[in-house]
Amino acid sequence: MSETFRSLPELIEPEDQYEQSLSSRIASIGSYGDLGPPDLCYITKESSKSVLGLFGKRATRQGYIHHPFGVDTSSAATIGIYFRTLIAQQGGGKSGTWKITRIEYCMFNIFTKCDVRVRLNVPGGLDQYGRDRSGAVFYGLSSEIWKGAYVSSVLRSMKPPLSPCPRMLPEVQSVKALREFVNAACEVIINRYPRQMVCKYFKIICDYLLSKQRVLICCDIFANLATTDPSMLVYAAEALLRINKIPEAIRTLAQTIQEMPHSPVLLLKQAEAFYSIKKYEYAIQLLKICIQLAPENFDSWYLLAEVYFAQQRFKKCLIILNIIPIAPDPQSVTGLPDVSEYSRTLPRDRSSSDTTTYLLYEPTKPDFKRAIGGTLQEELMEDLPDLEQQKILRLQQLQSSKFNIQELKCYQLLVRMEKEIGWDKLLKVRSGAFLMESDAEDFTKEEDGEDFSADAFGENSERDIQLHNSLNESTIDILKAGDSLIQKRHFFVGEGNQNRFNTIKEEEQEETLKSARTPHNGEINTKPHLKPSSKAKMASQNVLYTEEIEPETAERTNKRLCTRFMDSLFNALYEDLNLQYEWQDEVEKEGEDLASRYYSGFIWLLRGMLAHRLMRSRLAERALRVCVEKGFSLYAWKKLIEFYTEAGNPKAALVCIAVIIDQTEADGLNQWPIIPQWLSECYLKLINLYGISKMEPLQKELEIEEYPMSALLKELPLWKTQGYDR
Fold it and tell me: Is 73 exposed, middle or buried (0-12, 13-18, 19+ CB in 10 A)?
């Protein structure tokens, strides 16, 4: 369209809904989450070419919007600089008929709950004002309101919420700018808001710095902040834990806990430190105090469950998972009206990463494109055979694929238990902890405090050695598979893939897994303990319906009722394992090479996600490689980067990064104003693990030293990024 920017996609309001995006931000204030809506840049464009209307000639006028992240919002003057860059990008029509007449930048102050706005009229000057939750306009913005809006804006750039029209810019580009922001955040937040809110926002800063591997700067900044608020030492301790300085972290926290003995945040971090050095009893004592102080805190409950798992006290681990408080994922609210009726601009210059919005956010959902006519296109379900459609629906409808973040963490802990002791013994632990259907017929009294550890099941050190060796072999297999991937880098880009590369040979499942399958149909043997009783199903989280239990039985048992959440975890694991066994049976019957030719790449992607949830890394790696052999999936390539990084094959991980960039260049992208956060974090993690002295030669060997990732190398000494000096 003639009114577009050269390389910036935008949403276009319908002409009869002019300025509705601005008014809806105020109407939606009550629904905003912790960080509020993304910053909004609203641009009014008018055509100087008149249009004949019913009452004569009129000029057309429409609103264009995008959500910028990383803009310097420290003052109205810096926002004005951003306005000038936008005006310079305006493409203009064939005869220059479209022009910008107004730009309005909106940033939500999460502390005072108001929208701070900077407006530029063309021609004209900058105007500053605010709007409160009632929609009332106020001028004369105080320094406190402006500083709060600035801090809010930077926090959102560190943790960008989802947006239908994002524009990512480099956030906090120098150590000086970072320190100025942290000082501003300290003035706005500390000693003015509840402790829970203070910790929530400073944790975002800490997580951002650690994800960028800026550990030393993180430790220094929060150690300095501790002079103002001693609780900030919890984030300095987190940085020390990242570089394995555990004794220093414990001493730092111990001194602060003496001053603030009732701080759940400090106690939880100290418990994490003790857990990391296997001082489990100390960790348990601290976690019990944390739970008493903040019973709604998921992290305390979950770490306690992890400690019990590490001690092989599986029964207690299940009891914790049964009553753990689960919160829904926070919803990302953009403050926009329904944008389904909005059209989208198509910039003429599509060579900038600004135009590839799919690349800007970390891939968390399945995506797959296959080569059709030399280009990558979405695969349509209706084009697939009925059998494939059925398999895709089964994989998509799995309960575990719909868990939120906290539910998924609990599920994966249950998966770890199943891998450790097997399905049958896991069911035995469950029946010992909770009331089950079989209890009515075959009741066995359990002693209070009895632990179902590995020793209780007759396990011994030989079995532990076998399991340890099996896990080591899994890592070695993935390491070798990465080596074969290195030779196939250019195989994945552009056209369809007809050749095969060697995948890892999947070893037989551990004996504990085999014993859980029936000899007839390969399904899990679920009798007699799989389903909880109907009475247990009536229980909500941690509610005991004793009136539903026969008095005699209630006197003889200390068992608990199984909550619906625990029931859903076991049912999800049951479904996932059965699908995994069906998949393995298919491979055994058809052979690995023949089986991988069947089905679309999307099925293999969903299978890889299933295996990843079940922590079967070898199966997941093989399925994801079959997926990328058949097309392109950003999610699959990201997971492969993680697998090869953890397996100790930085060269293979670099190849995966290179393939992603190669594919974007094949799509016409050759300018990178910013490298997506998730992709840069993958690369910086490699630098942290293996050092710059190893990564630079690998890049030269792979002929990718001129790739966009190399721009990050120049910033390493500035930020003292982990690995920059070795």
Answer: buried
